[in-house]
Amino acid sequence: MIPLTPSDIDEANADGHGRKDKHQNSRAKRLNEAVPALRSLADAQSAALGRSKRRQNKQG
Question: SS3 for 1?
Answer without folding.
Answer: coil
